[in-house]
Structures are given as structure tokens and as C-alpha cells.
Specification:
The chain is an alpha/beta fold and about 300 residues long. The chain contains 12 helices and 8 strands. Strands 1, 2, 3, 4, 5, 6, 7 and 8 form an 8-stranded mixed beta sheet that branches.
Length: about 300
């Protein structure tokens, strides 16, 4: 897709969260940036928040090429560390699941889901360790994000007590904000920021669109990281929980899209074809081969998108 030069500074991005499925967003955004998309602002949640932060800091360093490089580095490092595999390692050892079962394995995740229902995050993860923390501490460039030249950045987390979305902007972004936006409450303790506690932003918005609309842009590019529809009815506990999350995380976005001003052209990059074919538990699979498959699918979807 080639974006007209007059449209570039009037384009904003909205990036959904979806765990490892965010690799689809990575691919779609990579293709859009390659094709010349420039963006004035970006809003993200969970994995979409991390992509958004990397894109903004990379853009400051080196334009579109810098943004592509920074986002790619995030996902390459996530694959090398097998981020979600590390998150479940203690559960594997505790329940004897470290016997060759892969993270995407249905039996393994059924057992993990059962454990998450029986025990609190404090019992399963007494030290509150989040494997994303060291990765983000290494990669996040707060100075670049707060640079006056940086595109506007909006990261959402869910305030545990109020249930409302909290939107953090460039000057507020740090590692804790990104961890809060991606905090899975069954696995990690709520993130304390300024005396308030936060969970995954997807519960309240996925992602927040309102901050992107002031001033009103000419175009909103939405990159989804979860399918809107899935064939069949899940029967296992693991699949039921994951499908419930998909449905719950979709509702806030639908509500905001219904209020989108007609003057704003919407480019909606769907993940249905790419992600609905994979099992629900695959959003926790950070193996390199799987991420590369989603990246390629995202690249294809971004290339097929036509400027209105």
C-alpha cells in the first residue's frame, strides 16, 4: 500500500493486544512502514502497547526504518527468551509438566488453567516475577519516547478498583506502564503505579481510540491481533477461558468503533484468516517458528490493504 504524502501526517495507528498473536501486528505494521506509512500517533494495549512503544522510539531514531528495526528487535528477543515459556516454567515444575510438553500443548494448558483457578498469583508466583520486565528494561528507550519529535503514544491499562481504562502518554511511559498494560491477573500481581493498581488494558479497551481522535485524523489504521469470530464451540477449560477473553477484549473496541466519526477513514486490518486457524492457546506460544508464521501472515495482510 502506498500512502499519499498528504495523508501521512494525518494517520493514526491502533494496535490490539493478543499475547504472541501480536506477531501478526508486527508483520502488518512492518509492511505498512515499508510502504511509506507515517503516523502522527499510536495507541496500544498489551503486546500492542510494546509494539507501539518500540515503533515510536525507533521512529525518533531513524524514521520508518528505525521503527521497523526496533519492533523486530523486540520480537526476536522475545523468541530467543521464549517469554511465555519462562512465565509458565515454575508452574511446569510445580505440577510436573516439564516432561516435554510444549507451551501450546492442550494438555499442558488445561492443567495450567486448573492451577490458575485453584491458586492465587501470590501462591503461584510469590516473588511477582514477570519475564517481560528484564526484556523491556533492556530495550525501552524512555528518552526517545519523550523526545519532542516523537509521535504521540497512548498506552492503556485497566484500573483494578475503578474498572476504567487509564491512558498513559509519552511523558509517563516506562517499563511499569508496559507491564501494567500486559498484566494477566491470573499469573501476575497487579502493577502498582502511583498508588493505583493495574491489570491488562484489554479489559477496558483494546485499544483506546478516543485519544487518537483529538485532533481529528484523516485516517485510522486498526491492526487486530485476535480473530473476531471462531468456528465451533470450545469444550476444554483452557479453550473456554481463552475464548471468553477474546470476546471480552473485543467488546470495548466495538463500542468505540461504533462512535467513530464518519470523517475519519478506517483501515481495518483483520486477523481472522491468519489467527482463527490456530488453537486458542497459541497466543502463549513464543517459539520462533510460530512467530515467524504470524509475522508473514501480518505482512501479507498489510500488503493487501488498499488505501481508500
Amino acid at each position: 500500500m502506498q500512502f499519499p504524502r498528504t495523508m501521512r501526517s494525518q494517520t493514526v495507528l491502533a494496535l490490539q493486544g493478543g499475547g504472541a498473536h501480536g506477531a501478526f501486528t508486527w508483520g502488518a505494521l512492518d509492511r505498512l512502514l515499508e510502504d511509506g506509512l507515517d503516523f502522527a500517533a499510536v495507541s496500544g494495549v498489551s503486546s500492542g502497547a510494546m509494539i507501539a512503544a518500540m515503533a515510536v522510539q525507533g521512529h525518533v531514531r531513524g524514521g520508518n526504518a528505525g521503527a521497523r528495526a526496533a519492533v523486530s528487535q523486540l520480537w526476536r528477543r522475545a523468541a530467543e527468551a521464549n517469554i511465555f515459556g519462562a512465565a509458565s516454567a515454575s508452574l511446569d515444575r510445580l505440577w510436573g509438566w516439564d516432561k516435554g510438553l510444549e507451551l501450546g500443548n492442550e494438555l499442558a494448558w488445561s492443567g495450567i488453567t486448573t492451577a490458575l483457578r485453584m491458586f492465587s498469583p501470590g501462591q503461584l508466583n510469590p516473588f511477582g516475577q514477570n519475564p517481560l520486565a528484564p526484556l523491556l528494561e533492556e530495550l525501552l528507550d524512555v528518552a526517545a519516547i519523550r523526545d519532542p519529535r516523537a509521535p504521540r503514544l497512548f498506552i492503556a491499562a485497566t484500573d483494578v478498583e475503578s474498572g476504567q481504562a487509564k491512558i498513559f502518554e509519552n511523558a509517563q511511559i516506562n517499563v511499569d506502564v508496559l507491564l501494567a498494560s500486559a498484566c494477566i491477573p491470573m499469573m501476575f500481581p497487579a502493577v502498582n503505579i502511583g498508588g493505583r493498581h493495574y491489570w491488562d488494558g484489554g479489559y477496558a479497551c483494546n485499544p483506546a481510540l478516543a485519544p487518537l481522535l483529538n485532533p481529528r485524523p484523516a485516517r485510522l489504521v486498526l491492526i487486530r491481533a485476535q480473530p473476531r469470530a471462531r468456528r465451533g464451540v470450545p469444550s476444554s477449560t483452557a479453550d473456554i477461558v481463552h475464548r471468553l477473553h477474546e470476546i471480552a477484549f473485543q467488546a470495548p473496541l466495538d463500542a468505540e468503533l461504533a462512535l467513530l466519526p464518519r470523517q475519519v477513514q478506517l483501515t481495518d486490518i483483520s486477523a481472522d484468516t491468519a489467527l482463527a486457524r490456530h488453537p486458542l492457546t497459541s497466543k502463549m506460544n513464543t517459539e520462533r517458528a510460530f512467530l515467524d508464521i504470524l509475522f508473514a501472515a501480518g505482512r501479507e495482510a498489510g500488503g493487501l490493504t488498499q488505501a481508500a
